[in-house]
Design a protein that fits this description.
Layout lengths: L3 H20 L5 E2 L4 E2 L4 E2 L2 E2 L17 E3 L5 H10 L2 E4 L6 H16 L11 E9 L3 H21 L8 H7 L13 H7 L2 E4 L1 H14 L5 E5 L6 H15 L16
Parallel strand pairs: 5-6, 6-7, 7-8, 7-9
Antiparallel strand pairs: 1-2, 3-4
Length: 256
């Protein structure tokens, strides 16, 4: 369907059905697009409700959705249904990330729910650990560029213009396209690079600025070899994560 408002309307009703199915022993739905159960004879009687089998093991069921491109309508819909937000990829940078966090907080405030900055969110970062920031930038640059080439075509790198995307396809033009550099991503805070201490320091500053934040997602760029991925994840687990061992994650409670 090319009608985006119609797509949104259909999607939102589908999500409502999913949450009804998760959160109730049995449920019925009468909406614009769906009637569940359908109004047809069933084994000699009229079926009034449906059940989901097997039932979810834990309630409420956690639901996460990227929010960096979310409209006011989308954020309001997520707040209404208790969906949590992920600010990730190349968008978790500087002022762009902060604007998303404020919009998220405002969406919840409109339904009477006060959130601390960062609450019910996870921030996503790419990372690369090395013996220095400069060494990490040198080692990770080629992976950063491969990642940008892939996700740029999908319009998921906000810093890229359409003209730059076209130039990036041509190896003779790409060097003159003034493409985003890993140095800029590191300086903006969207790419964690350097020693474990450098990364801990940056994450601690995020923790201080966003007191409601209790989750961070880290990943490696597309193209990083398996052996390097395993080494990097091992280092992050043993050299970065212990610095946050004392942090307490609040119990997940249903949205009101």
């Amino acid at each position: 369907m090319l009608d985006q408002p119609a797509n949104r309307e259909l999607f939102e009703e589908q999500v409502e059905i999913i949450f009804k199915a998760f959160n109730n022993e049995s449920f019925a739905h009468r909406g614009k697009h769906y009637t569940l159960p359908p109004r047809v004879p069933y084994r000699g009687y009229t079926l009034e409700e449906l059940t989901v089998v097997p039932r979810p093991l834990r309630l409420p069921v956690e639901c996460w959705q990227p929010v960096q491109g979310g409209t006011e309508r989308a954020l309001g819909f997520m707040a209404k249904h208790g969906i949590r937000g992920l600010v990730g990829g190349g968008s978790a940078e500087g002022g762009a990330m902060h604007r998303v966090v404020l919009a998220w907080q405002e969406a919840h405030a409109r339904i009477g729910k006060h959130l601390e900055l960062g609450e019910r969110l996870a921030f996503g970062f790419h990372f690369f650990i090395a013996e220095s920031r400069a060494a990490g930038i040198r080692e990770a640059a080629k992976y950063y560029e491969e990642n940008m080439k892939m996700f740029g075509e999908l319009r998921l790198v906000r810093a890229l213009t359409d003209e730059q995307i076209v130039m990036m396809r041509d190896r003779t033009k790409a060097p003159f396209a003034k493409l985003p550099r890993i140095e800029d991503a590191v300086a903006a805070g969207g790419f964690l690079c350097g020693t474990p201490e450098d990364i801990i320091e940056h994450l601690k500053s995020i923790e201080k600025r966003y007191p409601g934040l209790d989750r961070v997602s880290v990943s490696l760029s597309v193209g990083v070899p398996k052996a390097v991925c395993l080494e990097q994840l091992e280092r992050f687990a043993t050299e970065v994560m212990p610095a946050f061992a004392a942090a307490k994650t609040p119990e997940l409670v249903p949205a009101q």
